[in-house]
Amino acid sequence: MGEQDPVADLEHVTFSYGNGAAPPVLSDVTLRIEARDFVGVIGPNGGGKTTLLQILLGLIMPQQGSVRVFGQPPAAVRHRVGYVPQHASIDPAVPATALDIVLMGRLRLSSWGPRFGTAHKDAAMEALALTGTRDLSRRAIAELSGGQRQRVLIARALAAEAELLLLDEPTQGVDLHREREVLDLLARLNETMPIVMVSHDVHMVSAHLKGAICVNRTVERYAASEVSPEVIEHMYHGHEAAHSH
User: Fold this and answer.
1) pLDDT band per the 50, 70, 90 thresholds, residue 244
2) Helix (H, G, I), strand (E, B), or coil: what is residue 135?
3) Is residue 243 pLDDT above 50, yes or no?
4) How far is CA 128 from the centre of its chain?
5) Which of 3.40.50.300, 1.10.10.10, 2.60.15.10, 3.30.450.20 is the CATH number of 8-89+162-244?
6) Which of 59, 65, 159, 161 could join 12 in a cystine, given CB atoms 3.0 to 4.6 angstroms apart?
């Protein structure tokens, strides 16, 4: 891949659940994610935001159109994509430390399975340091605040040597001070990797990110400065058909 090639490229993608029998969740979507993008995915509930992330991850396949991530089918390069889900499946009853969680990101890279050598632990500690959570490495994940847990999950994606970061509502349920910490962290990480994050907070996206991907069955892309009240009104009410899903 050359420097100018898009990190992700969707062309005329249509997806509906139930093997295409249901009305489309996404319809004729063409979208490029570039190497230095830091974009928010915004739009109404049921408009297709999480579906778009799942297509980029290769977890679901569109009925029409083509998807390429790093020039390959998404499923073939999923190991190069860091994904931080909205409600991460970490059972607070599991006696895992923050370091244990981040080491899970190294499983694919460890030839010893779940027994990790020094190099893996060093990489995990470096990821914790990058996310400002190194001092939490021995703390039980159940003891961490929502914002701390979110940063540990981002560290897990970094420890897996991700080259593209996808996040689903990374600041939901996090207070304003912690939200700012997460956003500052993502802005720093964006110096070396593209970041795509789903968010309900349109104003936060327009104030802190470089661009916005508006998803309501169809997809339109805007620079952050272009996300006006008129754009938001059109995005939420421009496709009445989408409200029935």
Assistant:
1) very low
2) helix
3) no
4) 18
5) 3.40.50.300
6) 65
Other Cβ atoms less than 10 A from the Cβ of 91: the count is: 9
Question: Exposed, middle or buried: residue 69 (CB in 10 Å: 0-12, 13-18, 19+)?
Answer: buried
This prediction has a pTM of 0.86
Cα separation of 122 and 245, whole Å? 46
* Residue 116 CB contacts under 8 Å (≥ 6 apart), including other chains: 103, 106, 110, 124
Q: At what angle do helices 118-130 and 146-159 cross, to 10 degrees?
A: 130
Residues β-bridged to residue 40:
197, 212
User: What's the CA angle centered on 165, arms 203 and 219, to 5 degrees?
Assistant: 55
**pLDDT exceeds 70 at position 197:** yes
What DSSP element (H or E) covers 154?
A: helix 146-159
Summarize pLDDT for 89-105 with one digit per residue, the tens: 566 677 889 999 898 88
Provide the b/e sequence for 32-58 (b: ≥16 CB within 10 Å).
Answer: ebebebbbbbbbbeebbbbbbbbbbbb
